[in-house]
Specification:
CATH architecture of the largest domain: Alpha-Beta Barrel
Structural class: alpha/beta
Number of helices: 11
Largest sheet: 6 strands, parallel
Shape: elongated
CATH class of the largest domain: Alpha Beta
Number of domains: 2
Strand order of the largest sheet: 6-11-10-9-8-7
Strand content: 15-25%
Distance between the termini: 43 Å
Radius of gyration: 23 Å
């Protein structure tokens, strides 16, 4: 996730500017009529519900680059209670009013992802302390980097960030290739040693074929708990269980999560945590005028 120039800095600033232009294509009419230029204020972003903080550092870097100084913030991963201060800001009143809604929309979504992830992780590990809860690539376009970081802040696994990060052979690949074993063989022949080969299967037969062909990960897609149990038992009977990571995916909800986690699986991947996050409430409040016009 870390890099020389991660998207959390330069690219996020560019995105933020684009989002602000979308929200105020010809300026902020109300603030320009009411607030004189040069008025500076101190403001706070406050949690109004319980939540897990996420991506606060990235948002702070973007705000600082846009001329809003972040003087205090809570680290990502911090549990929050109502009225806890998420970050303290100082800047021109007009600019703070300009960024307010965009900032809060981001905070609500990202904190929601982290909070939902934390709930899933804690529930799954009550049944299976070693299981990982992972995000899928199903995220809001343009927010993948931040959404994945929010998953990590909640204690989840980020899975692959993009199609470039790893090999996952899915049903439409198999529709073209026609055979699980051949697909794994082709992937193995061309892939770097740095990448794992993950195969999405929907039957016991294909799960066995994938494991025998040398897949690193067997993803059991949209299988019932009973079907997952049958696959794992057969893998163990054939001496294949310890050679593969068993991942379950598809249809994972808060209601069935623990049932899947209680099985002998290694990873539970789900889009629920990024596409159906719990609603988190936050607000931005001006607390002091530090300099008048």
């Amino acid at each position: 996730m870390e890099g020389v120039n991660p998207p959390g800095t330069t690219l996020l600033v560019q995105d933020f500017i684009r989002w602000l232009r979308e929200d105020s294509p010809f300026g902020d009419l109300t603030s320009e009529l009411l607030i004189p230029k040069g008025v500076r204020v101190r403001a706070v972003v406050i949690a109004k519900s319980e939540a897990i903080a996420a991506c606060v550092e990235d948002l702070a870097e973007a705000l600082n680059a846009l001329g809003v100084r972040v003087t205090k913030l809570v680290p990502s991963g911090t549990p929050l209670k109502p009225r806890d201060v998420v970050m303290e800001l100082v800047g021109e009143a007009r600019k703070l009013l300009l960024v307010e809604r965009t900032l809060l929309n981001l905070v609500k979504y990202l904190f929601g992802v982290a909070t939902t992830t934390r709930t899933f992780v804690e529930e799954a590990r009550r049944a299976n302390p070693r299981v990982r809860v992972a995000a899928t690539r199903k995220v809001i376009p343009g927010l993948r980097y931040l959404a994945k970081k929010a998953v990590r802040a909640g204690g989840g696994d980020t899975h692959r960030f993009s199609l470039s990060d790893g090999v996952i052979i899915k049903d439409n690949h198999l529709a073209v290739i026609g055979d699980v074993s051949r697909a794994v063989k082709l992937a193995r022949e061309g892939v770097s040693f740095m990448h794992r080969v993950d195969v999405e299967v929907q039957s016991l037969e294909d799960a066995i074929k994938a494991a025998e062909a040398g897949a690193d990960v067997v993803m059991l897609d949209n299988m019932t708990p009973e079907q997952v149990r049958e696959v794992v038992e057969e893998l163990r009977r054939r001496g294949l269980r310890d050679r593969v990571i068993v991942e379950v995916s598809g249809g994972i909800t808060p209601e069935n999560l623990r049932e899947y986690a209680s099985l002998d699986v290694d990873v539970i991947s789900t889009s629920y945590i990024t596409m159906n996050p719990v609603r988190v409430d936050v607000s931005l409040e001006f607390v002091e005028v530090v300099r008048g016009p």
